[in-house]
Amino acid sequence: MTSIRRAAFLSLAQRYVAFVIQLATSIVLARLLSPSETGVFSLAAAIVSIAQLLRDFGIGEYVVQEKDMSRERLRSVLGVSLAIAWAIAAALFASAGYIADYYHEAGVRTVVHILALNFVLLPIGTTTFAVLTKELAFKEIFYVQTSSTLIGAAAAILLAFQGHSYLSLAWSSVFSSVTTVLVLAIVRPAETFMLPRFSGLREIGIFGGTVTLGRFLDQLCRRAPDMFIAQGLGFHAVGINSKATSLLDTFQDFFVSGISRVATPAFAQTRHANGDSVESYIKAIRTLAIFPFVFFLLLALLAEPLVLALFGKAWLEAVPLLRIGAIGGIMAAPYFLGPPLLTAHGHVKDILKIQVIGGIVFLGALYFAASHSLVAVAATGVAGSLVRIAMIHGALHRNFGMRIGQLFSACRTNVLIAVLTGLLTAPVLLVYNGTVVSALAALLAAAAASIFALTLGIFALDHPLAAEVRIFWRNRVRFS
User: Fold this and answer.
1) At what angle do helices 35-56 and 71-103 cross, to 10 degrees?
2) Of 156, 167, 197, 201, which is most buried by a Cβ count within 10 Å?
3) Per-residue pLDDT, 215
4) Degrees (nearest 5) of the Cα angle 225, 257, 42?
């Protein structure tokens, strides 16, 4: 438990450190690069990001969930990673000119050529990174990713200051990749230093192909609303929806992703030790579900002052979209660790089935909703979440015998604390009267009220986090 607790802390810490570094870098670069310069890089990066889905190929998940990861099998994993990544690099080099000609921008070709170097470099450390994740070695991962982010940020600012325009962003990505490979070489476990093998690839290919297809469908569902909305409601509506989506995705990007990186190997360890997977999942939900419940409840409650303070009055149309989307987030709270549990047990076909069926239903409904209103689009998103939730529960019940009553029981205390937080936070809206100043005041007051309510609820209702706080405090006193 100690290693998992420490791994979760380090994983989340890395996410937030990276966020601060990237935010500071973007503020500086906004003063060194023009929108058009940034646009050239963004276009090339968007194209390369599609290839990135193929490069990953589920290698990390395969290593984490595999119980018998022999040296020979690890060599095969390295062989698959190198073969796919280097083939993609060659394809990007060959197609860069055609892409540049299509967009009538020669700079795109140069940027694609530079970004393709990442596909040559990164697979060298793929197996090392996967083994570190499997072993919950998040201290080493923290060093790798934080140093990579810092070097990349420093390179981008320095090169942009010297007048290298959009190439500064491209080369910073390469500097970041080089740093990743070098630091991984320093911290790597001894067994990950090996030559690749190009046999025994069928099992890896089936697993990786299933994961990759699922990720592609997931990305398609995330990008499709902008395409459909642009056609049906115009680009103004696209902008409004993107602002709402960015806030709703904050929880996924800076909490769920950090926890999932730890949850998958932790669940895999329980599986390999023949432990009780249902008990492990219920314990995790009892401890962690408080965060989505509170986050989305407060997001719904404070949507208007939050949008006004962050973006201004021009974006207030996003408020009802946020409130509708928050409903979906609250409903999904008991299941946000479902995919990591399924992945840890190798049930990637179940995840693919969820993504395919859920994606088809969502895209079909979205196509019609996008011609009516943004509210209809947001409601479609919630309906799609319900379908996905039902299918995740079905997979958990089928594979582990998990019952809905167990999940409701695990979430009871979390819901009570979330309601208490909402009740104590709601009165701060009395200071909000539709101005930026009052919006900021309301948010600051809400932050204070919610922290007080959370602390009160966690200790008064003996939430599992109370024990975690006591352990942290005892350790702090011991080493002070």
Assistant:
1) 150
2) 156
3) 73
4) 50
Whole-number pLDDT of residue 392: 94
pTM exceeds 0.85? no
* Helices and strands of the chain, counted as H and E runs: 21, 0
Q: What is the pLDDT of residue 281?
A: 94
pLDDT in tens, 444-462: 999 999 999 999 999 999 9
- String of b and e for 102-136 (b: at least 16 CB within 10 Å)? eeebebbbbbbbbbbbbbbbbbbbbbbbbbbbbeb
Q: Is 353 exposed, middle or buried (0-12, 13-18, 19+ CB in 10 A)?
A: middle
Find all residues with CB under 8 Å of 337, minimum gap 6, and list them: 259, 260, 263, 281, 284, 285, 288
Other beta carbons within 10 angstroms of residue 313's beta carbon come to 10
SS3 of residue 461 by DSSP: coil
Q: Which of 454, 443, 384 is nearest to 420 (CA)?
A: 454
Mark the ranges of the chain whose per-residue pLDDT is less than 50: 1-2, 479-480
Residues 6+ apart with CB under 8 A from 301: 422, 425, 426, 429, 446
Given this model, what pLDDT does residue 115 score? Answer: 92
Q: Which residue has the tokens 């890395």?
A: 14
